[in-house]
């Protein structure tokens, strides 16, 4: 893994965190009955998880609300992982004042980057520089905020994620790729075994290859591939205190970002084996020589400090 990669000058708008919008990166855990997503048009909703009555009728139990994966059996060290819960107490980030720039708008979503005022002219736009991304190739990671309500408008958090570039597009930055889970291919010993892998199979009617280890995982929990982050398609979502988020294994993400008045305590649930490069891989984003700035999230807040949604579902005058 290179220590850094060149980054374009790019400005990212903020979107509403919804299960559908976050789908390719992992899952959003929230109460389906009170989720802001219930107000979205039907095509933007994901069916709620199955539920059953529990606790003698005093609870509704939603089943399998997020999908965890432990892929450490594929790690080079073979050191087994254990399930861990860590706590991250995340301080509010410093931002810099807005200034016009020649930076490109992100290639995802519509964005009028000059639109920084409401009808009363009292929105404030600030700039948040994203200088590092990280991923956990062998595990999902779930961040659960504590003590923050859905109504809290003075403190919110951002989830910043990037798709993964194809490995071929990443090779020019790296000679030695860092460890990444790849399904093991067992060596076949007999001709029968070798032919059994041919498709269409001479021995069965199967026409499709056997399912890989990853296809048995929920799509949100599957590893995203060994490549570097696709910075041009980076996305930034604003979450409320009633939402937890699970990053799929290997999803490139920024360290948790708190916007507002106070720290947020998160419990983070994941697997870990204490081998540094297998647990966490980081990459620094260095603006390239011609870039005026690097990767920047545009953070618009109203007079109460509420982060405004500027792209994606619910962006038109949307409020969380
Ligand atoms: N996401 C975040 O804030 N941090 C991590 O993922 C970590 O494991 O350090």
From TrEMBL:
InterPro entries: RmlC_Cupin_sf, UAH_cupin, Ureidogly_lyase, Ureidoglycolate_lyase_dom_sf. Keywords: Lyase, Purine metabolism. GO terms for biological process: allantoin catabolic process; purine nucleobase metabolic process. The keyword Lyase applies. One of its GO terms (molecular function) is ureidoglycolate hydrolase activity. CDD domains: cupin_UAH. SUPFAM superfamilies: RmlC-like cupins. It holds the Pfam family Ureidogly_lyase. The keyword Lyase applies. It catalyses: (S)-ureidoglycolate = urea + glyoxylate. Homodimer. This is Ureidoglycolate hydrolase. The lineage of its organism: Eukaryota, Fungi, Dikarya, Ascomycota, Pezizomycotina.
